[in-house]
Write a structure and sequence with these properties.
Blueprint (H helix, E strand, L loop, with lengths): L8 H38 L7 H24 L6 H32 L6 H27 L7 H24 L6 H27 L3 E3 L5 E3 L2
Antiparallel strand pairs: 1-2
Helix pairs in contact: 1-2, 1-6, 2-3, 3-4, 4-5, 5-6
Length: 228
């Protein structure tokens, strides 16, 4: 009877895959909320620092967001990464470039909406946001793939899957986040963080399982389980 109740390798795989996906989603949601909370505080502080160079503030926002997301995601992937500093540097740079790209494109969209008396075509905005999100995702996917390349043993197929997943998830997340943006209040910024975190974490989490759950180690009772 006890022999029949022993866990199977398939059960272990499903269990740990679900754990990885759940952790990845939760961490991304928390990190997005935290980053947008900090950004909201900075935006509020600008009102009391009129002499401060706005460009410096925008750069600071991008760097903070990169560090927050990089550290949070490392917590989930730490067993699969050999160099924390390298991971943090490449993901922070990628997130910073994403941030600058986001500011540029969103500013263009806002100006179009403000300066045109006629409604801008919904399709035009949709395509701009999808292009923006996909570009951001490619940047981050490439950076994270580069940081994980040693663990993935330079598997081009797995890295390609990861980059494409990032592009798709970011495209959907940016579009949903932008569409939910009303005024730049703290609540709205937090909601954007929740939406983007769930979307990005949920979609890329499935691909993360595919690229990371494949390697196994053998436990003491002979059952192969994923390395978590």
């Amino acid at each position: 009877m006890m022999q029949g109740m022993r866990p199977t390798p398939r059960n272990f795989r499903r269990r740990y895959a679900l754990m990885l996906w759940e952790r990845w989603v939760v961490v991304n949601v928390v990190a997005e909320i935290l980053s947008f909370t900090i950004i909201s505080i900075i935006i509020h502080s600008i009102k009391f620092a009129e002499d401060e160079n706005s460009n410096n503030i925008l750069i600071l926002m991008g760097l903070i967001r990169g560090v927050v997301l990089g550290v949070a995601r490392y917590w989930v992937l730490r067993r699969y990464l050999s160099n924390f500093i390298f991971w943090l540097v490449v993901t922070t740079i990628a997130e910073f470039l994403e941030w600058i790209l986001l500011l540029m494109v969103s500013t263009v969209i806002v100006l179009e909406l403000a300066l045109n008396t006629e409604m801008i075509g919904t399709l035009s905005i949709f395509l701009k946001l999808l292009w923006l999100g996909a570009s951001m995702g490619i940047l981050m996917g490439f950076a994270q793939g580069l940081a994980m390349i040693k663990y993935l043993q330079a598997s081009i197929k797995q890295i390609a899957w990861w980059i494409n997943a990032n592009a798709f998830a970011s495209a959907i997340g940016v579009w949903l986040g932008f569409m939910s943006l009303g005024t730049g209040t703290f609540f709205n910024l937090v909601m954007i963080g929740v939406i983007m975190g769930i979307t990005y974490g949920g979609i890329t989490g499935f691909v993360l399982i595919y690229v990371l759950i494949l390697p196994y180690h053998v436990s003491t009772d002979g059952i192969k389980v994923p390395r978590f």
